[in-house]
Write a structure and sequence with these properties.
With about 230 residues, the chain is an alpha/beta fold. Helices cover about 40% and strands about 15% of the residues.
Length: about 230
């Protein structure tokens, strides 16, 4: 495949299980190596390999350290980079407030709901102020109401912070609601079946999900999957 992602865009990646969506994210993040081809991040005219780019990754599971507080979990990337305690805690408090957990900094993971743990994971990713945020079906295990609220919060943060987001999901409605552009992959080995700019307003309220224009966009994605044999 050959994909170009515009800086500051929100792109959803959808396709059947096992087609390679997560593998693609891991290659972009530098966690896996491609046997052929390359991934390039191009800020302006300068080209930098993705493994050296300011990238953050949110996995399917929150992967929080149970013996550390919410504050210390969110500050972990800054601690590993050598930032002083007071500075990293200040940065972590700021981003935890952005994800709605400003009052829970002293709690531990076992004291949190599943949705709150994912918000800590999101805060831990955002604390480094990444230019590229990779998200591998982060809300898939949550109930529909919690998932919808986190989708709204994520989109608001994207508007506020201006980072590029690549978001893997199996939910076509989540892809359509969150993203500006959706890329539909075939079954393994993944090939691009559809590269689609969503014809939806930039500012989106929850009520958009009930409108005919939204249903049409979800249908476009669904038809592409069906044509590809998913």
């Amino acid at each position: 495949m050959n994909l170009e992602i515009a800086p500051g865009s929100f792109v959803a990646l959808v396709g059947p299980s096992g087609c390679g969506k997560s593998t693609l994210l891991r290659i972009i993040a530098g966690l896996d190596s491609a046997t052929r081809g390359r991934v390039v991040l191009a800020p302006g005219a300068e080209q930098v390999h993705a493994s050296r780019a300011p990238i953050a990754y949110v996995f399917q599971d929150a992967h929080l350290l149970p013996w550390r507080s919410v504050l210390d979990n969110a500050a972990l990337p800054l601690e590993l980079s050598g930032m002083r305690r007071a500075e990293r805690h200040a940065a972590a408090r700021e981003v935890l407030a952005q994800v709605g957990l400003g009052e829970f900094t002293a709690r531990f993971p076992a004291e949190l709901s599943g949705g709150m743990r994912m918000r800590v994971s999101l805060a831990r990713a955002l604390v480094t102020r990444p230019r590229l945020l990779l998200m591998d079906e982060p809300f898939g295990a949550l109930d529909e109401l919690t998932r919808g609220r986190l989708d709204e919060q994520l989109r608001a943060l994207w508007h506020e912070l201006g980072m590029t987001v690549l978001f893997v999901t199996h939910s076509l409605s989540e892809a359509a609601w969150l993203a500006e552009r959706a890329i539909v992959f075939s079954p393994r080995p993944a090939r691009v079946l559809l590269d689609h700019v969503l014809e939806l307003p930039r500012q989106r309220a929850a009520a958009l999900r009930l409108e005919p224009t939204f249903a049409r966009e979800v249908h476009v994605l669904s038809e592409a999957l069906e044509r590809g044999g998913a």
